[in-house]
Amino acid sequence: MATLIRDPDGTKRVQVQVRKGYRPTIRLGKMDVHAAERIKLRIESLVVARISGSLDPETARWVAGLDDKFHARIARTGLLPSREQTHATLGRLLDEFFATLDVKPQTAVVYNQTRRCLEEYFGAGHLVTAITPLQGDQWRQWMREQGLADATVSKRVKTARQMFGQGIKWKMLAENPLAGVKGGCQTNRARMYFVTRADAEKVLAACPDAQWRLLFGLSRFAGLRCPSEHLLLRWGDIDWDRGRMRVTSPKTEGNPGGEWREVPIFPELRPLLQEVFDQAEPGHEFVITRYRQRNCNLRTQLLRFMKRAGVRVWPKVFHNLRSSCQTELEERHPTHVVCAWMGNSPAVARAHYLSVRDSDFEKAVQGEAKSGADSGAQAAQIPAQHAAAGRRNESQNGAQVLAPCGVTRDAATSCDSTRNGQVTPMGFEPMSPP
Question: What structural domains and CATH numbers belong to the chain?
Fold first, then answer.
């Protein structure tokens, strides 16, 4: 791992294998052999820490006491971060993180929200090495005091933990100050809402045109993600004969086989789709053509239609439509089939999509009432069955009841009297010992 080399002039140097094919040399100068051996052992500890990601306390104290010149020699081998990196600020860490970030624009928005919270609380000039686990817990509590939902706080804690994890990889800090900070659950049950068929029909009637009715129907009756999957739907994706449509999904395209999925053209959706098709101009590629502008706020418009329809405004206007669709489909189809149509997993469905409806309670109560009626009928039959059984037993106490030897009681009596020389008692009373 490391070799101590003694030069003829009395100087010492340590040759270390940092990685395969790379064996840099760290010059120690003239010193005692025992001192050089101790330095070699510390350098070997740095190699181990580079592999394991954890530096033992004694070596950490040794590194902290090195002068800048010798520290720089070791840093050039890649075993230590430079002193400049060691004193990295939160702002620099976040700059480097976002410079290497490769995510979709909407995901980048979520990451930027976490960055804003970190810089607002700690300050961009705060040293990352000075952020303690206690301050991490205090930051989480501060976000809750700002009125953020528990699910939002959980998401930002986990995102920030990922950012500091990259800082450890880049040797900007030794440990993650958010490693022990509780993230919590990202499921917000208060914002889950089931959109009934009755309310859906009212909103459909309030939509101003066929394309808006289809936008709404694709979300409520087919579970498409709005607006990404709606706006990518092409007429070439519609298979009228087989009753299917091919849905392109930007959200899951990074997963193997997640670039697209097939979704049934459900009976409720077909007339809405047919209406738009009948009005489509020749040569148009996309199904939705009117609401493709970047400044077109579909959520605001749908809220207006909901108020016009006189229905309750549900919390997450498009996601609640999608989750309502999955909740309904789960009643009629296996979970793995529904998740294939929706483009999610059973775990995600249970946490963020499936909801308990009033109709579920009503079915349970009706089922119990029916079961109670059935139980009452069964209970009424039991005395009659017992009475009938009693009459049968009385009629069988004579010649119809078989004795242990397999003959009738009259025959058994004759058999016993012949065998024992006495009359066998009748009935079920205990027999006297012979």
Answer: 2-80 (no CATH), 90-186 (1.10.150.130), 194-358 (1.10.443.10)
